[in-house]
Design brief:
The protein is an alpha+beta fold and 80 residues long. It is built from 3 helices and 5 strands; from the N terminus they run ααββββαβ. The protein has a 5-stranded antiparallel sheet. The longest helix has 9 residues. It starts with a helix and ends with a strand.
Length: 80
């Protein structure tokens, strides 16, 4: 699954475009490596590090979503 799509499905960004912009700026790291391509594939077990507001989030991907569902469903996709 694309990185920008996963970030959007997990409700870290309000739109997929905003998620893609954050990745293109180089604000997102996957397994400690800075990425700048929104289409990079992510898999369960990957660790994402990115700023969100005044915080730095460190997220472990537990599952790939099939859709952008409610917040309770989105929380099951990652471990904070």
């Amino acid at each position: 699954l694309r990185l920008d799509k996963w970030l959007w499905q997990a409700r870290f960004f309000k739109s997929r475009g905003l998620a893609a912009e954050a990745v293109e700026r180089g604000s997102v790291r996957v397994n400690g490596t800075r990425v700048s391509r929104p289409g990079r594939d992510v898999t369960p077990g990957d660790t994402l590090t990115f700023p969100q507001g005044q915080r730095i989030r460190v997220i472990r991907i537990l599952a790939l979503g099939a859709r952008r569902g409610p917040a309770t469903e989105a929380k099951s996709l990652y471990l904070d």
